[in-house]
Design a protein that fits this description.
Helix content is about 25%, strand content about 25%. The chain is built from 7 helices and 12 strands.
């Protein structure tokens, strides 16, 4: 996977590092030094921290971290005796100085159909939505309501100019969607880029949003008509316009957390 690095270190300045120590599946101790975030590690909200998913294109994947490894220490701090909240806070604080990068994920050529991609993507239960969103700076009371007294991070969804024509085994056009979450008045930024077919965007994003908003959909997307079937000329512009309108609707809390 390719990565676009955000920001440069000053010449001669030592790059911040984060030391994570793991126990492997065979009980061996493994030490990994991270220099960028997101780390790419996903785990359940319980102790001990056992790695259940590794994001494609992340440094965790590059360093050879494996599923099933158990995190033992963060930056020299042992996790024994910590609650999951304390461990997550420690990890968040320790990874703060690392440079931030954009995850660029390869198109899922093994999941070209909507059904296969939907099955490939990790789904979350409504009960998991609140703690999941909290990791990205969002405050939700439940899966259906936002915390009204807290300002949400600013979400930007857009398109990277250009698309890829891939024939494997059938010919399809893949559009690059760029996402950005800005928290703390620009203090921190998370960015990512994924490639999706028009059918993926329509079925897995457009249709659920339209169903959730109901009659209010036309209000939020009046000037942002979704792309037509068959990807005729102008499809790129329509998708970009629709994603911008979606970002605005989410930022205004028009859509529920889940």
């Amino acid at each position: 996977a390719q990565r676009a690095v955000l920001g440069d270190l000053h010449c001669g300045e030592m790059e911040p590092q984060l030391k994570l120590v793991f126990y492997t599946n065979t009980g061996k101790e493994e030490t990994k030094f991270f220099t960028e975030q997101p780390l790419g590690l996903q785990f359940p909200d319980k102790m001990p921290i056992v790695i259940r998913r590794i994001r494609q294109g992340s440094q965790a994947e590059q360093l050879g971290v494996e599923l099933g490894w158990t995190m033992q220490s963060i930056g020299g701090r042992q996790l024994d005796g910590m609650t999951i909240a304390q461990a997550c806070a420690t990890l968040h604080e320790a990874s703060g100085p690392l440079r931030r990068c954009m995850l660029v994920r390869k198109p899922p050529l093994d999941a070209q159909s909507v059904t296969k991609l939907s099955a490939k993507l990790h789904s979350f239960e409504e009960a998991e939505s609140v703690p999941l969103l909290k990791r990205f700076g969002y405050a939700a009371l439940s899966a259906k309501s936002w915390e009204t007294t807290v300002e949400l991070p600013e979400l930007h969804l857009g398109m990277i100019d250009g698309c890829r024509e891939i024939s494997n085994p059938r010919h399809h056009t893949w559009y690059a969607i760029n996402g950005k979450i800005i928290t703390g008045k620009g203090a921190t930024t998370r960015q990512w880029l994924v490639e999706r077919r028009l059918a993926h965007i329509r079925t897995l994003l457009h249709h659920p949003v339209k169903q959730e908003l109901g009659k209010a959909y036309s209000h939020h997307f009046e000037k942002a008509r979704f792309a037509c079937h068959g990807a005729p000329p102008g499809t790129f512009t329509r998708i970009a316009s629709w994603l911008a309108a979606l970002s605005k609707a989410i930022n205004s809390k028009a859509l529920p957390p889940a």
